Amino acid sequence: RRLDLSGVWRFRELLDFCPDEHKVTIGEGQTILQQNCAIAEHLGMKPDALHLQYEGLNPSGSFKDNGMTAAFSHAMMVGATSCACASTGNTSASVALYAHSCGLKCTVFIGSGRIAFGKLSQAMDYGAQTIQIAGDFDDCMRQVQAVCTELGLYLLNSLNPFRLEGQKTIMYRIIEALGWEAPDWIVVPGGNLGNSSAFGKAFLELKQLGLIDRVPRLAIVNATGADTLTDLVNNKKLVWNGGNVDQRIIDDYYADLTARHFSPHTCASAIEISRPVNLKKCLRAIDVCDGVVLAVTDEEICDAKALIGKYGLGCEPASAATIAGLKHLLARGTVAKDDRVACVLTGHALKDPNVTVNYHKDRLGEFSNAPIEVPNDLAEIIKLIR
Ligand code: F0G
């Protein structure tokens, strides 16, 4: 249990809520900021301007582990014995892993058919009780909150404020890599809006502590099939307003979703969420970081994912929304070609192989790279390779 080997707890003075003896760590947060000249040039940016923070390199393959190490430490502090979460997949994988690491019983709620197989296989392998509900993530979220209240289970969704404390460290690692200087932009996918909320809090605190001079701007990218935040901010003009968020706008919006029996849909299943639980905290982050929000199509996400695969370490579809969104922001001139940008690639390339294989197999996209069928014949194979 080496705290200095955790990319979260080596910043423990900045998330100071837990005595060391309760801390749960499995070596999360050993991730680094990587400059990517090839993608920068492809996007028409200055070659040294673009950086990728690949959080897929965490123990369970996503950024969630940054939050779980903190939340499970708190669970140990308060003597929890069993825990639960709703999930589009990565939360369940991470919860299941940390739960067996510290001996907690664990139940995860999944929307039936709405999870990538890499993630589902992790929850099962790590021994979580896995409950599939005939509904979407938002249904699961509602049910798990009721179950946790009724049965006294420890809730591990990003409603849990200790999750967000751990996720702040993703930003610490980025600015550490840049010499304790903020980049011009942080770009992050938006689902339940835990990351964006945590990032805003991180920068507010660093500024207050005098550890940085200025905060970066924040760009939050939805999928068009799950774009509640984009709609509320850009069209309904929902703002933080010093903490006086206009609740009527939100209530009317959700009432309309219910009336239309709306269910979100995107190939980026990780962010297939229409009632983000951290909406208000995210509005605060947008206020702190002069943020922008936008939505990108599934096609744009898949193209961006293939680009990241071709020139970087790859990522899962939701993570690629960052590069797809950045393309729009560059085209609009919101982001300048020489602005220093850090995109957070939230999940590992192997989480959702179906989307990847289908893209390459079925499409003639710019980066489509379908396998070639050849007869089982040496001469034919040699002819083809030549
Ligand atoms: N990227 C990935 C890979 C995710 O798994 C998630 C969320 C997000 C982005 C969105 O992050 O919620 O902080 O805005 N996945 C959750 C889950 C909802 O259940 O695994 P957010």
What does this protein look like?
β3, α3 and β4 form a beta-alpha-beta unit. The chain is an alpha/beta fold and 386 residues long. Strands 1-2-10-7-8-9 form a 6-stranded mixed β-sheet, with helices on both faces. Strands 5-4-3-6 form a 4-stranded parallel β-sheet, sandwiched between helices. It starts with 32 loop residues before the first strand and ends with a helix. The chain has 2 domains: 228 residues, Rossmann fold; 93 residues, Rossmann fold (3-Layer(aba) Sandwich). The protein binds ligand F0G. The site of ligand F0G has 21 residues, from α3, α7 and α12. Keywords: Lyase, Pyridoxal phosphate. It holds the Pfam family PALP. Its cofactor is pyridoxal 5'-phosphate. This is Threonine synthase. Its EC number is 4.2.3.1.
What's the short story on this structure?
Its cofactor is pyridoxal 5'-phosphate. This protein has 386 residues and is α/β, with parallel strands linked by helices. It is built from 14 helices and ten strands.
Distance between the terminal alpha carbons, to the nearest Å?
A: 53 Å
Radius of gyration: 21 Å
Output the number of helix runs: 14
Reported by name, the CATH topology of the largest domain is Rossmann fold
Number of domains: 2
The major pleated sheet works out as: 6 strands, mixed
Q: Give the spatial strand order of the biggest sheet.
A: 1-2-10-7-8-9
Helix percentage range? 40-55%
Low-confidence stretches: none
Shape: globular
- CATH structural class of the largest domain: Alpha Beta
Strand segment tally: 10
Keywords:
TrpB-like_PALP, lyase, 10 strands, 386 residues, Rossmann fold, Ser/Thr_Dehydratase, 4-stranded parallel beta sheet, alpha/beta, single chain, binds ligand F0G, 6-stranded mixed beta sheet, Threonine synthase
